[in-house]
Amino acid sequence: MAAYILRRLLLIIPTLIGIMLVNFTLTQFVPGGPIDQVIARIQGEGDAFRNIAGAGGDTAQQASSEYAGARGIPPELLDQLEVQMGFSRIVCTEGHEGAPDLKSPDCHKEKIGAFQRFMVMMGNYVRFDFGTSFFRSVSVTDLVIEKLPVSITLGLWSTLIAYLISIPLGIRKAVRDGTAFDTWTSSAIIIGYAIPGFLFAVLLMMLFAGGSYWQIFPLRGLTSDNFADLSVWGKIKDYLWHITLPVAATTIASFATLTLLTKNSFLDEINKQYVITARAKGLTERRVLYGHVFRNAMLIVIAGFPALFLGVFFGSSILIETIFSLDGLGRLGFEAAVQRDYPVIFGTLWVFGLLGLVVGILSDLMYVFVDPRIDFERRAG
């Protein structure tokens, strides 16, 4: 098992580089880069895509710049932006004194190729240096740390609640398959699955956040304004009070899927020959269910853990974050994509990819914990 884990750990680096290479290559063909976004803001248009789609006017003047809609923008500013964002560098002659400066006649701008930019980025990322956001003037690491509490809250609590409810409920449904309990719980689960998370969030706000009926839970934020002044127990209650509605809205879809998956997995195992043999030996139903069926049926449920956790943790609905005024990683990623904030996009992609691969290894370890008969090392050989 140790050799298998070592091989998986060694595969993390080339896998991460492959993920980054694919996404970096795709961004080279996406219109409206970060400099176009800055130009649009300077011109008061707020959106670079208008310039890209409908640029017209003086062709000769546009030809003097690589950026559509750059008319009226000093070329010196464009050069500074290119250097600042890493698309170019300042090269000076050998006899130049002082810091490199484009205003000096001894210095000039030199383009940096895409491959070279990628290699520099990878060198920095291996050292966990993710650079600084183009538009926020804050390091990417600080941005991720700032937004992380929201994503941890939604991801951790939603996954934990989904498993704590879905697994016992799925087992109960499998044992009582075809009964009235199975029928009405299945109906409730299907209805819950059919309701989009953001729509359920709006419904919860209307019912319990003062929208139309009761003012039980707060409308926005992760904590109250006086959170720092509260006692330890007061902080815990305030935190749980704020996360109840957003976590409920995030959990509903994963809860339904996981319950049905658990039920079907247990039903498949209950009908196998070894269960009939165990019952014929006189074992109690509880011993059969939890001593034999459980570890086999839970394998497929555990296999879905990384996808469920990462889906909620990293892709927490931007709509739910917006509805409850939660500034998390989902919102950060969306804004970075719109603004073409490449350091934020690639920095978070690196972190998320690394965590995803590590969680995949932990999932394999959970397989072995549930069923020690599984030997990944022997299968890999």
UniProtKB/TrEMBL annotation:
Q: Where located?
A: Cell inner membrane; Cell membrane
- One Pfam family, short name: BPD_transp_1
The reply on keyword Membrane is: yes
Q: Which UniProt keywords apply?
A: Cell inner membrane, Cell membrane, Membrane, Transmembrane, Transmembrane helix, Transport
Q: What main location does UniProt list?
A: membrane
One GO location term (cellular component): plasma membrane
Please name the GO terms of the biological process aspect recorded for this protein, alphabetically. microcin transport; transmembrane transport
Domain ABC transmembrane type-1: residue ranges = 148-367
Residues annotated as transmembrane: 9-26, 148-169, 190-214, 239-262, 297-324, 344-370
Q: How does it sit in the membrane?
A: Multi-pass membrane protein
- Tell me the superkingdom of the source: Bacteria
Family statement? Belongs to the binding-protein-dependent transport system permease family.
User: What's the name of the protein?
Assistant: Microcin C transport system permease protein
Instruction: Provide the species name.
Output: Paracoccus sulfuroxidans
